[in-house]
Amino acid sequence: MASIPQILSWIVRDVYHGWSPLPLPPAGSFAGQTVCVVGGSTGLGLASAEHCVNLGAAEVIITSRGASRANAAKEYLEGKAAAIAATTGASECRVTGMILDMNRYDSVVGFAEDLKKIKKGQGGLDFILLNAAVIQSRFVQSPEGWQEELQVNTLSSVLLALLLMPWLRAERRNRYSPAHLAFTTSSASLANDISKWEGWSSQNGGEGILNHWNKKETWPPGLSGGYGISKALLMYACRELVKMAVGPDGKPWVIINSMEPGMVKTEIQRHILENSPALEFLGDIFVSAVFKTSENGARILIMGGLTTEEEHGHRLSRLYPHEEYMNMPVVASPMAKRLQQIVWNEITGILAKAVPEAKQCLTELRSP
Ligand SMILES: NC(=O)c1ccc[n+]([C@@H]2O[C@H](COP(=O)([O-])OP(=O)(O)OC[C@H]3O[C@@H](n4cnc5c(N)ncnc54)[C@H](OP(=O)(O)O)[C@@H]3O)[C@@H](O)[C@H]2O)c1
């Protein structure tokens, strides 16, 4: 896990980034592109969608679990799109709201099917940002039987990527350059003590790492608890997806990145302190004073739609360079490398058993 001095230095740097935002990419960076922000109804997702509208996207799709939230975000973005069109004279960005509940596999499968119809045979989507996530302060299970962070942040995020990747690969021949598939990650993914995880894996006679955490007795609440674990599991799965995205010519047929926005004031904090009104009040003051705005935090998320083939697989962070990340023990140690494979096998095993479409996609992705 990252050391305490390392984490403290990241916090100090991140607070500074609140006053010193990453510069925006040049005007027109997303010109003519079709973008989908999963979890784009609020917070960092909505701010990312807004940046894409401002930077010239032709169509922006956002998702929410609820129609009213999807419609509110759509109307907000349409207002921005109209203002941009009026000032630049360019054609107005089309905004679409779609319903997606990542607590249920059938919703993820249905959403992926709908998304794949967009620009079918014409290159598909240009940039898909898998951004939805939750933090829970209580043990809440999804209808699929998984603790909600494991369900939404890990299993359904990987499922969605798996369902979309064969389609993105097929659309590559209809595009000049690869499409972008990007994940919003968190430094909480680097702050876990993973030393015992390998021993819990079924290949070592254990119950399985995900099964281990999927219990009220073992699941730790909060930012450095279940949330960090779910993001670490997603990080390992992403690193395997990066390998699968490389074609027989050694080049990526879809460019995959993860981006770390740092501490941002959004709705996600609401569950951390909700059990204590006093802490909620103090926490709100602290978050308002120290955390950056969504507009600021989303600047790095949209960079996941603008990376080059050479940057395939990079983790984009303002806290450390990619090379430093690649040498962190949580990624580079022999144990972490074994763990990555174990986690991938567990996640794909769970998904292949529960979702026939995932099994089919895995077969397609494993064939050259
Ligand atoms: N805020 C931070 O400090 C911070 C730091 C590092 C990383 N991140 C990451 O940034 C991303 C965005 O977080 P945020 O802070 O912007 O959080 P947020 O304001 O709570 O937004 C979360 C988004 O995810 C969607 N979502 C939640 N549960 C879902 C589900 N079951 N199915 C489908 N969509 C669901 C929400 O949509 P509806 O509620 O409308 O359905 C919403 O659009 C997350 O991946 C988070 O881990 C945040």
From TrEMBL:
Gene3D superfamilies: NAD(P)-binding Rossmann-like Domain. It comes from the Eukaryota. Coiled coil: none annotated. SUPFAM superfamilies: NAD(P)-binding Rossmann-fold domains (SSF51735). The keyword 4Fe-4S does not apply. InterPro entries: NAD(P)-bd_dom_sf, SDR_fam. Keywords: NADP, Oxidoreductase. Belongs to the short-chain dehydrogenases/reductases (SDR) family. This is Short chain dehydrogenase/ reductase.
